[in-house]
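Example 4.3 (complexes with small molecules)
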Amino acid sequence: VTIRLKDYKQPDYWIKNTKLVIRIFDDYTEVLSELSMVKNESVRGLPALVLDGVDQQIQSLAFDNFVITEYDYSGEQLTVQPTADEFVFKAVTHIEPEKNTSLEGLYKSGSTYCTQCEAEGFRKITFYLDRPDVMATFSTRIEADKSRFPVLLANGNPVEAGDLDSDRHFATWEDPFVKPAYLFAAVAGDLVRKDDSFTTCSGREISLRIFAEPHNAHKTDFAMDALKRSMRWDEEKYGREYDLDIFMIVASDYFNMGAMENKGLNIFNSAAVLANADTASDDRFERIEAIVAHEYFHNWSGNRVTCRDWFQLSLKEGFTVYRDGQFTSDMHDATVKRIKDVRFLKNTQFPEDNGPNAHPVQPQEYMEINNFYTVTVYEKGAEVVGMIHTLVGDEQFHKGADLYFERFDGMAVTTNDFVACMEEVSGMDLTQFKRWYTQAGTPLVKVEERYDAEQQQYSLSFSQSLKTTPGQSEKLPMVIPVKMALLNDAGDELSIDCDGNFNPETRVLTLTEAETTVTFSNLAAKPVPSLFRDFSAPVRVDFNQAEGDIFTLATKDSNTYNRFDAAQKIYLDALLGMISSGSEATPAIVEQVVEATLADESLSHAIKAALLTLPSYQMLVDNIQQNVDAELIVKARDAMRNRIAEQFSAQWQQLAEQLASAEDYQFNAQEAGRRELQGLALGYFALMTGNSTALNAAEALYRAAHNQTDRLNGLRAVVNSTNRSRANAMLNHFYDSWKDDTQMVETWFSMQSASDGVSVDSISALMQHEAFDITNPNKVRSVLGGFISNFKSFHNSAGDAYDFVAEKICELDALNPQMASRFVVSLENWKVFSEKRGALMKAALEKILNSGQRSPDVLEKVQKALA
Ligand code: ARG
Ligand code: ZN
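Answer. The structure with arginine bound is encoded below.
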């Protein structure tokens, strides 16, 4: 069934209050619900009540005190006939969380019971109007065995607890804030608790609690600290104060996504919350900090103001990703954060826009909403919010956000409502801008320059276009903010005197037409344009800029992001040239960039590392776009990588040595940058075949490491070298040392699945390993997820990975459709590859379709990919 935005209509009934009793027994759970409902005033007559409810074993149903004897239950929806405008619908049902491998609704994560309700999991717990525009206050009572489940949690504030017969106990929680069912959560388990507190800007003391299984108790300090910093930041930057008296986080080993913002009771994937220096790398710390912030920020952008329907998902996700990005930039280094975000966008979202699953930030239709928790909705959605910020300016943006939170508090609204607030405060008309929400695809901006020495005039012509995407053939021009400067050859910024729609304060030139030409006057020499500074719009740029100019940008641009971007362009152009000519010779300009970067004392370690990293294989595919020869891509990129390794081997060695530190581990931008550059240098150094000095240095770093980043830098360098026996010995040592630590075992799996040239057989063997568990998403992601992103291995010359992954998708689909569906992306872009390879990928997709019963999740993706 296809659900469409244009069909949206309010429900016939509302739920004002929801009262739940959840009785957990060993092999089933009994759920009692009392829904206080009223008919929607705008609806005539007394329509049937249609409630969502999946796999409910009905024990009894009633309206107030009248038992319902006539009802229709399909296994997904229950239809009953009310006899009044206002009533309490009561249901007693049984469910089986022990058998729930989908990890939606109530399920068991190890020995802990927990829930995941977004998007449509609540209907697996009880009958409900499971849609985000139905908002109710909740009271939740949980009952369970006292010794095995001493901790009983739900949303809101604790109001009552006590003992029951047969060693059971109960706890009751009340949430006074109205919310949709997707924000419901309940937990029962044997968990240890870390306590802290936070005093809000108005002086209220909030009790903070992080719950984890006993063996993970030593890994919760960092998340607690990140939580407190997030709470402070949201007060200072957005004026958002926390509302309940208590805020809780629970770590769960079995979780489909990163984390979930349930009101007052966030549930996190263990991997997204647990960390200490010994087991978490810098990347992990940064990711955890960002996710803790993200979920916390949802309390306002998502919970207090929520989405009217799931087509509005980006209203909360795009905005919240934008907010967590600002937080990370404030905590660490804004340029480094920008570089990482753009890299991620280009590596994942651009290909999505270019494939069969291309969809707008606000999708217009879906079969399975879980398939739309995408990089487009999240990350491109955040870019769209960022462009609004750029266009209206900082002051108006914050005024607009304040207005949005105030006006829509307690309501379920749309992206239009958000934009309208920005329009109202700024006086700007954003009608055309809103095409960013409705038109799918990445705009292409072609740029041409002309210099007239006589007139001392310089002009830039921009033409934008947007390719057809599935279901959208007609595309209109977008509003594209181009943050820019004109530089002289020394990299100094020139003052701008121009005739276009240029804002001198923000240095933003705004394009609104398909073609725009802007003329700059009073220029005694041809300037070097620095365009799309800080990646001011999520577009592809086609600008045949003179190599010398790009070199100037890569080495001298005062906008550090654009230095990175220019260096990437030099690498990319060189690689594309090598690929099309089949040559393995690296153009000289590449070495010049590397040399200049290595010698530049003004750069931070982190920026240096970014400037010295080649574009990914995936990025090359995305830039070639048709008839892609995977083997040529690998050959060219590896040749360039090896050339850089060899040409600068003395510098790599020196850097790796000089960047070593015996200081205690600290997670901050500077230290993380140092470790990153050291890892990069060591990696290049160890690439030189047969270089035992390098491998010794790497192994020494691994052995002496007191933190995970150093340990992995050492291990990775050896694992990706050509010395297999040494790599295996170190991997075995790692496993023996850490096999009792779940996060370390996951890392151990990932290290192998991501290693250079790993075979299908090795992946298959990892999936047979004693520590592997196909019902655990983290394990599956660390093996299979690592493998599908390992370009060289996944697209190996034998072409045997596709069929293997297809088989695994089918196996997973029977257990956990949401997870299975995530892997289809690996085969989705089969059309961009050369004929033979494309055919193998296509055959794998067909196999998925033709081998057994498929979930709507997988079906939707595969059908689109084959259409
Ligand atoms: N709202 C969560 C977050 O981004 C993600 C939940 C996704 N759940 C899902 N079933 N797709 O913070
Ligand atoms: Zn989110």
